[in-house]
# Entry
Amino acid sequence: MSLYDATYVFPQVLNFNSKDRVSGTNSSFISLPQILGDNRYDTCCVVGASIPKSFYNMPTGFNTFKLIENGFPAGVTITVPIGSYTKNNLQTVLTSLLTTASLSMNSLTYTVSYSSPSVADTFKYTFTISGAILVSQPSIVMSSGNLSPFRQLGFEFGTTYTFSSNILTSVNAINLSFILRAFVKSNMIIDANGNILQELLNYGSFPMLSVVSFQQVNYDMNSRKLNPAIINSWEFSLVDTFDELIDLNGIPWEITVVFFQRSSTHEVFKQELSITNEERLFRIEKEQKQIQDKVETDTTVNTTTTPTAVEPPFQLSDVKPVFEIEPVGITTSFLPNVYQGPV
# Structure
């Protein structure tokens, strides 16, 4: 059974590239006008997409946090240089930034370490202080919202973390993948939550600087209702789980969409199956009712019938001999003579 109805128009496949745009950026753009011909389309679906994984895992606006030390309640704001980091080079950068920030306060020496290859990997950073005996322990503050690198450092946003005995350990595993899922949003559709045209569930599993390739596997479940108010030029945006635009650092991405008129045949079959099922259930219910009525009728008849007379028990005296009259041919001639006395 076909998903589309080609009575009036055949499906049409169009490709959209972020570099071919009327306005916007590679992260969010308005496409060039497209010609759909005799536009009777009511449905669209993503066929495939190619999206580079060229974003920074320490991007602008998500790279600042605060260090507070004894006697300096205002603390110092630390800004991590934007870029793409591994767990090793990030711990080196953090060590330098924390120690430098402390120069304007208590001149403490900070060290950031990660699990060594000889022990179990905890996926967490450990922050250590040396060089002074402190009256009160320093604190690292992750600002509220999504402005701080809480994911990359293994913390929660909007939370203050205080050292204990000169040591602080991440509460969560560090996340240098940064973006685990990507979403393509568009004003092309009207029936999806948040105008999400397609979700890329495996976006975070690809290595940095690779190209994430998506191929549609279920057109029925992932098709969307086409917005009739916008007919030939649409806006496309690439966002993460927090609905923030993904900055691909100037590299374009593309997406392929198919337009078609959805077939209503499956809806007709669905309605027919529903009616057939209702009839089947009604027939079963009717048969069950007939059986129940029959059982109740039989029970009533058995309880109102006059009981039959009970025969008396069997008596041995009631048994009659097989031969009531002496059978013919029986003689006593051969019996011995018995003296009877004088005749």
User: Anything to note?
Assistant: The mean pLDDT is 87.
